[in-house]
Each structure stands twice: as C-alpha cells, then as structure tokens.
User: What shape does this take?
Amino acid sequence: MSVDPAGRARVAARFDAARHYEGAARVQALAARQLAQRLETLYARNPAPRRILELGCGTGLLTRALRALFPEAALTAIDLSPQMVARAREAVPEATYHVMDAEYPTLEGSFDLICSNFCIQWFTDRAAAFTRLSGILTPGGRIEVTTLAQGSFTQWHAACSACALPSGFPDYPDAIALEHEWPVSMHGTWQIDTLQDRVGSARAFLRDLKAIGATTPRPGAKPLSIRALRDVMTQFDRTGDVMDYQVGFGSAQKHRGFFVTGTDTGIGKTLVSAILTKALNATYWKPFQTGLAEEAGDTASVTHLAALPPERLIPPAYGFQAPLSPQDAAALEQVSVRPETLTLPETDRPLVVEGAGGLMVPLNDTTLLIDWAATLDLPVILVCRSGLGTINHTLLSLEALRQRGMRVAGVIMSGAPNAANREAIARFGQVEILAEIPVLDEITPESVAHEAATLAISLRQRGW
Assistant: This one.
C-alpha cells in the first residue's frame, strides 16, 4: 500500500504493535520461501553476492533464508519498525541491522544484491525508489523483490461488490505497470503468481490483517461502518474460506556499463568516453583500434584524459596501423577479425566500451560493428554532432539500434549547443539527451574532470 511520508510513523507503529506477526503472515512466509528458491536457482549459475541488502526485513522470514543461502555474504537488513528489527535480530543475530525507511536507504558502499519480501507495496513512488536503489548496486548487481499485484483479495472485493460497498483496499499495479518502473540503468522482468491462503472466515481474515500490521486503508478511503462491515463479512463467509493473493516476483539486473558509439567518425566519441569513464570511475575498453601508424590511439588518449590507473584499462583486442575500418585495416596486415570470440572483460567497476567509427563500420566480411555490439547486452550511449545534419544522422542511428533490440541509454551531443537540434532529436528520437559537451578551449585531464562532474549528476539521477 502506498503511503505518504507523513503516514510512515503510523505504519511503523502498526508494525511495532504486530505481536503475532509470524503466526498470521502465512502468505508472506510462502512468498519468502519462493523468493529464496528463485535466488538459489539464480545464483547456482552465478557467483554468490558478497554484500546483500534486505529491505523491510520484518521478523526475519527472508533474512533467515538469505543467511542460509549465502553464509559468507555481508548481510544488512533494514526496517521502518524498531520492534521488527529487534525480532529479526533475535532470529538472525549475525546480520547488521538498521531502523531505516526502505524507500530512502542511507547506507555506505554498494551491494551485489538488494531484495525484499512484501515491502515495496508500501513505497510512495516505486519507480523513483528503484532508481535510487540502482544507484547503490554494483555493476551487474541485482534487485529481487516481491509485492502485491492487481487482483489480490479477489474474494473480499467480490463480497464488497455484492453489498455495493467499496473494499477499501488499494489498487495494486499489474505486470505492465511494474515493468515500466525499472530504471534505464537496469533490465528487469516481473512474474505474477497466485498464492492462496485458507483464511477460515472473514473474521479470521481481518484479525490476521491486524496481526501483521496491514490495516492502513487506501488513501482517501473511508472505513466501513460496523453494519456495512458485518454485511460484507456475512457475504464473504457464504462463498468460501480462501483468499487469493496475486504476488509479483520482480527480478532485475543493473547493466555492467555502456557501449559508446557515434553517428560518424571524428565526432568526439573518444572525448565522451574519457568523460564518461571519469564520471563513473569506470574501466575502459576499446576492442578495435585502427590508425596506430599516425597516433598512439584512443586507449592512450582516454588513459591520459581520465587519469586511469593501469588496472582500469583493458588493452584493445585488435590494433591495426592503417586509419581504415577494422575490416580493411586487418586485411592489409593479413589478419582476420573474429568478434565472436570476444566477451566482456571482468571488472568490479562499470565498463565503458568504445566502438570504432560509426555503427555500420564493417569488422569483417560478414559482421558490422552494430551486429557485435548487440551481443554485449549493454545500453548504448550515442554521440552525435550538435550542428547541421545531425538530426538525420542521429535519428537513423537510433532506428538502427532499436531494430536490433538494443537499449539506448541516451544521446550525448558534441559541439556548440544547439537548442533546436537538441529538441528535435529528443522528440523525434524519443530519447534522453544526457549531456551536451561544448567545444573545449583545451582538452586536458582538468577539463575532462569538469565535464565529468556534470555528467555524473545526470547519470546518478538515472540510477548509475
């Protein structure tokens, strides 16, 4: 249930008073077990999380499972209710606990896994909360949560409808609404499962709601009169003793970084890559480098401009002397480019991957750069010129990316600011303009750091 910030103290007080929570929280316990099973399956084929944050730990239903699944992980659990935190601490003493609003966590460091069970339906703005939570995830980190979804409490709604009365329950979101709430920094899905609880009777159902503290009505809803409530309870008891809960299981992973490409060659792609790498404190990789006969290459430029230490630099997979496309430069050196053998390097930081030239640059006789980039599963930052001709080039590039199902994080414009072109690209391209990099008097580590500070703010607002 969504509550305004002024009501959070009342919510905490209700949960503080929920003395018999675990005896009544049957569906919560079932959802926690199912979420734990999903986590076990997920991490059976992935490295175990090192730092875990649990939101709304309650009495520790999920906390116990997390500790059993990941005994070596540093587990932090938070809840708005001091009494709930105290009970969870008794159940799992080897975790770290904080009394804290799960919608606005204020914790140091980042986490590999953020999870919660039946907590986020209390958030005022889930989409904004997911963006904030993404900001404290490591690259590749995950959010795994449950929440009530549309269709919950069907039998109670039906009883109220039969009596021509409002149910008082909130309008929970459906899967489509939930899907739209993941931030651009993450790729996520939702699955809705029906969980049933044999409540016994209307009186027992209402008693259990009170026992778990879930008695906050929908904002603006008036409570039923005693007579009306008795009518609804009588109607409910005539129809059965089962209550349906539609439970959404949300699973999302933060993207590991960005693929930086351009609408053309020589438009400032490497400068943007240096600024982005600095803004994210990231690792940099340019897999295909040409033109080494004439210059040290983009890897050397980014290393200098972003002041990268050696451990945050991935050498090119292919480096060629001629200032040509990778296909043609490789042919001159009698080398075949095999992009299918390349995988993203392992790094514990965000990864900035810079392309070569534009999207349609050939890597070999059968593969364009865009074809290989589509296999990386990284959101794309498209760099474009700000001046004449950019609208056509940029919109065509955006269309090519989307035809291949590639996620576009946004556009960065390079050159003298042009408000008309910016507005046209944003409107017709249905894309965010992440930044405008002006013509710099000098391209130095200091000027890159200045632009990076501005870009970092824009990225944090989107969960990076």
Notes: Residues 322 and 332 are 8 Å apart (CA to CA). The longest strand covers residues 186-198. The domain at 257-460 is CATH 3.40.50.300 (Rossmann fold).
